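note to self: dont lose this again. the chain is below, predicted strucutre after it. 189 aa total, dont forget to put it in the shared folder this time
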Amino acid sequence: MTTAHDYSEGIDPEYALKYAIQHMQGDRVEIVEGVIQGGGDAVTPPTWDHEHAAEQIRYQIYARVRELGYVTGSGNLDLPRSANWYVPDIAVVPEALAKGADALVPDQTLLVVEVTSESNAETDRVVKRRRYAEYGAPLYLLVDRVDRTLTLFSRPGRLGYTEVDGPHPFGSPVRLPDPFGIDLDTGRL
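---
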């Protein structure tokens, strides 16, 4: 008589889930509140309009990012002790940490940028904003293409960001505070 074996003993479900998505096909496989998004043939690539908005931000911050010894990318951000693994549209991270890292955590970033799409706008506006604050991302810039606004969140805490600058309509300058100290031109978003 064959008996069922409990394979869950000794296996960390968070580790197993995050390990699995790192080995799935697709560039933007995320876990948002325990739900895998993207991967395999089901990946819906970002639209060119979405990519254009991200590129406009990246282009404007690039020189300052390099001066600070940081890099920009859309690499993996792990949120330990949770069923969350994000791939932001842009993350600004220290160059030294980026070399050889599979994933970083939000408090190792200087800035995280999410650009909304019709399919993920609420996730970026609510869930990711809360989680980035909880995990210490110092600045979270929400480029809301649906509402055509930008909002900068800062001063993270367990209950969320305590400072909110915006929403600013596309076309209005948005100030990125120190150490950036630059105004974003949002007219081309």
